[in-house]
Queue: 2 jobs
Job 1
Amino acid sequence: MTVSRSISGAKRRELAVRIAAAAVLIPIVLFVVWLGGWWFAGLLALAGGLMAREWCTIVHGGSPVQLGLHLLAVLAAAVVPWLYGGVAALLCIAAVWLAAVLHAGAARPSHRFWAFAGVAYVALPVLALTSLRADPAYGLVAVVWLMVVVWSADTAAYAAGRGIGGPKLAPAISPGKTWAGLAGAAVGAALAGGLAGWLAGLPWLAPVVVIAALLGVIEQLGDLFESLLKRHHGVKDSGAVIPGHGGMLDRVDGLVAASLAAVVIGLVHWNQEAGAGLLVW
């Protein structure tokens, strides 16, 4: 009984720390998103840099060469689009990625996928969020809408998984995730996306709700991908940069996947501006 109470108390304290950290960080993040421009670029560079450090620690054993290349790709993704456009940034990332692959290949890694995937994983989401925010008409709305969808999906998945339980989604990768949690993520994202779209005055909400539900599922798949990374390399958390939330990779794993999907949807629908293409139907 004493041990059970101790564990329960530890979980409550951990949850309180998580809530307190979120209560501090979310307003700061939203304020910087609202500021946009170089403030937003700085935020993305900081987050991407932390992601790069954690990835290189887990996958590359802290290699300074790999860390430098990953950081260079993040800076290209955060800065180059504002100066020379998204295509130039993509070309810079591709060049850095090639250098990282060649360096990793020379080291003869035993697991090539993880050794070769890092530059794309840390840099492309930064470029995706930069592209969304750069939309002059819908950039701010698109980024805030996406964050609301991702946060709501994550919260709803946790609530549904704990409250309903049931069959496991991928027990070999993440034993805590259930099919009920995945369904909760889709429903929570759809409701939040629809409400946020209505508050933003978007013209047609039905496609926005469907896209939000899809992004909710993709957000959970992004979470699973990062869990697979950690399980494969035998680590519990990617880091300890955020109190109660682990590392930066732990915190943004769903946003990484959802931001890439959001930009693809936006550009396929409307190849000029990703934000308008995502939200205006």
Job 2
Amino acid sequence: MPIEMNRRAVLLGLFSAAAIAGEDDIDAQEPSGPPDPSLYIPKAHVVDELKFLHDFMEEFSFVMLVTATPTLRITHIPSILDRTQGRFGTLRGHISAQNAQKAAFDGTHQAVIVFRGPQGYISPTWYATQASVVPTWNFGVVHASGRPRPITDKAKTYDLLATLIRRNEQRVGSTEYDFAAQPREYVDRMMQGISPFEMEIQALEGKFKLGQERSEGDRNGVVAHLARGEYKERSLHDLTQAFYKTLPK
């Protein structure tokens, strides 16, 4: 009898230990707290005013989606920001259904979505005070971090596409294309080729390195010289036209 009771005690102990270990495994898989910072930001360049960041994100809404699943991947896509959902908002977008990065859309894998604004070289000769100065590069970026989840509802996917198209048709001044007029059978077939997702933003990082920490004279010099625009990057028109010329006849 004592031996049998000891056996029972040992088995109960093993089951209890296994249950605790299982709970630990589940806890380890659950997201805990906000994500780690995704970039270095000196205090002088931190911007955390939410409306400013949201306005920037909507203006520069063509983004880089960065994940480490299944390996380090970066996909370039348009995005939609919903300012009303979540503390910092929620982002929606889609990638190709053939893109292995869709493995990150399970609600547990971390992603960073990068919004990149204008950038440019700043010459030391532009400053009012030119003693002990070096060239630099000014830019503005916003990083939105979270854990993307798949959008599986067909109506929600359709709304994602309709919103993307409507907003960007308005941007380019187009009034002729009507997405709603497209045959639904055709649209449903096309939707099978994408993997839509949404990501509630758990951390929002704004880095605006625009020389704001410098003297008023230096800032005025930077603005004055940038206004001249001596150096201009090629526009999408110029790049497209030049690229077309390289294509075989």
